């Protein structure tokens, strides 16, 4: 079996507020209700959530309700659509 080092990866830099909003949404969403066209999409969302949990140095997993609300406000303030 190949180790994690053998799996091709992509590094993505996110604004911390975006990471907080995405992690909060992923943790509060029933993945069985998210519209998908292929089962791999659901798995990719679960994988994304686990990567947020793994990236502890940004502490997005331990945000308070106030920090989540502030992140949501920061992300939403520049929405042009």
Q: How would you characterize this protein structure?
A:
- The protein has 81 residues and is an all-alpha fold.
- Helix content is 51%, strand content 0%.
- Helix 1 crosses helix 2 and helix 1 crosses helix 3.
Q: Give the overall form.
A: globular
| Unreliable stretches | none
Helix content: 40-55%
Structural class: mainly alpha
Largest sheet: none
Rg from alpha-carbon coordinates: 15 Å
Count of DSSP H/I helices: 3
Order of helices and strands: HHH
Got a strand count?
A: 0
Content of β-strand: under 5%
Look at the structure and give the mean pLDDT: 84
N- to C-terminal distance: 46 Å
List keywords for this structure.
single chain, 81 residues, mainly alpha, 3 helices
Strand and helix map with partners:
Layout: H1 16-28, H2 39-54, H3 65-76
Concise overview:
This protein has 81 residues and is mainly α.
